[in-house]
Amino acid sequence: MYAKGNVDLLNYEKSVAIKGTRYPSEFGEKMGIRVSKLLAKRNCSIVSGLAKGIDTCAHKGALDVAGKTIAVLAHGLDKPVYPKENRNLVKEILNSGGLLISTYPNGRKLIPQFLAARDEWQSSLSDGIIVIETGIQDGTNITIGHALKQNRPVGIIDHKQLKNGELSFIKQAQGNLKYISENKAYPLYTEKSIREFENKLKEIA
């Protein structure tokens, strides 16, 4: 494993991965930032993969409240940051005492397979994961699968409980509903439920 930044975050008291689709709804974007802020203020480090969409919201939410965040990259740490839209975000992460992690040595360029492999590490580096929005075929399912195998608690936003259930029909919520219906994830829809999920992280931290 290769690291750049504040390696003390690897031993932080609590850490949670916040994950989701690259193409969230407007609600999903707002919820991603809100959940990240809430947990960062409660002394959780926020882990994500620097991808567009929910990953970006997760990192930004932590930074907005001077929290700590870890970005897992899918290429060598000396290579241009992918996606290029988040190169300034990486600078903010490092300047705020955050951390970049990669399992690839300097000089290793990104290839598509590395993006999927990265998802396992986001779960491994965390005490649990929270999924904001995911479709049935979304890449976030890879992270969820690893979390379940690793016995990490999985929390997921329950769109049925929000805005009179109207949000349950959007395609970005169909994966959420699937995992909740299969009892594979804790449904989250209030600040209280998120705090209760955070207590489950304490149990295994």
TrEMBL record:
Domain Smf/DprA SLOG: 1-194
InterPro entries according to UniProt: DprA, DrpA_SLOG
Pfam families: DNA_processg_A (PF02481)
Lineage top rank: taxon: Bacteria
The family this protein is said to belong to: Belongs to the DprA/Smf family.
Name listed for the protein in its UniProt record: DNA protecting protein DprA
Species, as recorded: Candidatus Enterococcus lemimoniae
